[in-house]
């Protein structure tokens, strides 16, 4: 019987490892990066875009420019997760990431909903969303452990009336 667990996304078949807990008492399943990804330094992104705006004497305010060019980077894991309807997978950072690599999870914690699994847009591909607060770009290599996932139960409110079906992630569920 399937209760909760991980599977590999179709395109990554045979190319990635399923998440594992590192020790007997670990709460989190460690996820690996499925590809080499560069997470650019936010300072570099910000300074470059500010300079461009100043040199071009653009009318667009520098703040607007910064907002457009300083973005988190999505790091693919090649993994999807299935679970019960009253459960979610909480993605959290590794405590060593800010200390050693200047990597922050841009969304604080990530919430992987049970209905994200096998959604029609991206099959339920789990991504970690990083900002690099370091001064230099950070190269994440395929196979590096980037974060962890903890399965948790959640409660529903008396007024609960969810109606829609999930079709994707990252802002797919409405206009705003
Ligand atoms: O760090 C994250 C956060 C979310 N997701 C995926 C799984 C989740 O089920 C879906 C939607 O996430 P969330 O509800 O937090 O974001 P949203 O901005 O509300 O998007 P949506 O409108 O699709 O719900 O995106 C990730 O892969 N990584
Ligand atoms: Mg949502």
TrEMBL record:
The domain of life is: Bacteria
Q: Which terms are listed as keywords in the entry? A: Hydrolase, Nucleotide metabolism
**All residue ranges annotated as the dUTPase-like domain in the record:** 70-174
- SUPFAM superfamilies, per the entry: dUTPase-like
- What EC number(s) does the entry state? 3.6.1.23
Q: Which CDD domains match?
A: trimeric_dUTPase
GO biological process entries? dUMP biosynthetic process; dUTP catabolic process
| Molecular-function GO term, any one | magnesium ion binding
InterPro entries, per this entry? dUTPase (IPR008181), dUTPase-like (IPR029054), dUTPase-like_sf (IPR036157), dUTPase_trimeric (IPR033704)
Q: Please give one Pfam family short name.
A: dUTPase
> What does it catalyze?
dUTP + H2O = dUMP + diphosphate + H(+)
Please state which protein family the record places this protein in.
Answer: Belongs to the dUTPase family.
Q: Protein name, please?
A: dUTP diphosphatase
